[in-house]
Amino acid sequence: MITLRMLCFGVGQLAFDKEAVPTLALIGIDKGGTSEAFVQLALRGFGASETKELCCLCRASFLQVYRCYDEAFNLSFTGQLTVDATPRYLYHHAVADRMAAFSPSTTILVMLREPLSRIQSLYNHWQTTGKIAVNTSIPLQEHLQLEFAFLSSKETRASVSALFNSSSVDAFEVLQSLRSRIHSCTRSMGIAACTKARHWQDTYKSSVRPYSYLLSSLYDVCLRKWSTTMLHPSRPGKFAVVQSEAFFANESHLLDLIEIPDWHVQRKQLHVNKGDFHHEYSDAAALSRSLAMRLRNWLEKPRLSLLSHLHEMSSMGALVVPSMHTAGNWWAKKWDSSHICAPPEADSICRKCACK
Ligand SMILES: Nc1ncnc2c1ncn2[C@@H]1O[C@H](COP(=O)(O)OS(=O)(=O)O)[C@@H](OP(=O)(O)O)[C@H]1O
């Protein structure tokens, strides 16, 4: 149904519930622009906590979740616009269900960045800052080759096929089980599932956190879990999916979705640091054009699944920016080799592989 708001503002605006804690959850994804979005939301009165990634719903019990939000926001103070911007929520095995139980009327915002760019950005961030215990001692190219070997091994092939072909909820379970297999595979030696990727085992030490760049690019599997849990046609405007590239090009693509409700009472003005962008990428984050193309081809079916899901979500009241009909954006068009950037003098290598 087209509402008056939609006629005035394009895709429409988000709806916020005074009782919801948090009012808004920015659930993903890492390197999708969530830091800058958090800053812009804080400037508009969202916040109450200077910590962006509260991860309160990572806690298992209802009481722990409540205490975490109470500590962050002081829940005795009503009328605040609160935000929990934790990008890892999108993938978390339990958070969607916890959110539905703890605060079903929280508004959900997901920012999705074209997967190839996100992978390079994330690897580069971890490698150059060294802040996180994820293994970046091998170049990204090698890491991805190991992942492809693992995901096409005899032991994982059936699960990967189920992942690409199952219904939403089944696929989410398969994804979680594969992620945990990668976890144990990379943490311990001699696991049968790792046979084909023996080098992978040798590469990791038990102290480093294993991470699958490939599995974390299957956005739609997780998004389906979230939409099944939190999107209801009777509550339009409570779920938005915004493409990071649209936000990067013009932040109003996101900010125009947000109208501050009348009931809002500002408790304190936050002084959050502005997000930093446009990092130089290190050589270790570079990929060969052929691997970049392999990745793109691997992601083509998930892209089509995402696109059809966005249509369904939109018909159920979700806001999707840019619309699936807007030409020239990554979730609406097939990628080919012309979308893999590389300087002419370094034909086989690309530092930032994705280009328009
Ligand atoms: N407004 C704007 N314009 C252009 N680019 C932008 C913008 N906001 C964020 N970015 C880019 O987003 C990447 C950082 O994303 P996140 O803030 O989500 O990172 S984090 O997960 O919170 O660490 C990081 O990407 P890379 O530079 O490619 O690493 C930022 O450059």
Automatic annotation (TrEMBL):
UniProt keyword annotation of Membrane present: no
InterPro entries on file: NST/OST, P-loop_NTPase
One annotated GO molecular function: sulfotransferase activity
Domain of life: Eukaryota
Sections of the chain in a coiled coil: none
Record-listed 3'-phosphoadenylyl sulfate binding positions: 113, 121
Active site, renumbered: 31 (for sulfotransferase activity)
Keyword Lyase belongs to the record: no
Keywords: Transferase
PANTHER family membership: BIFUNCTIONAL HEPARAN SULFATE N-DEACETYLASE_N-SULFOTRANSFERASE (PTHR10605:SF56), HEPARAN SULFATE SULFOTRANSFERASE (PTHR10605)
Name this protein carries in UniProt: Protein-tyrosine sulfotransferase
Record organism: Prymnesium parvum
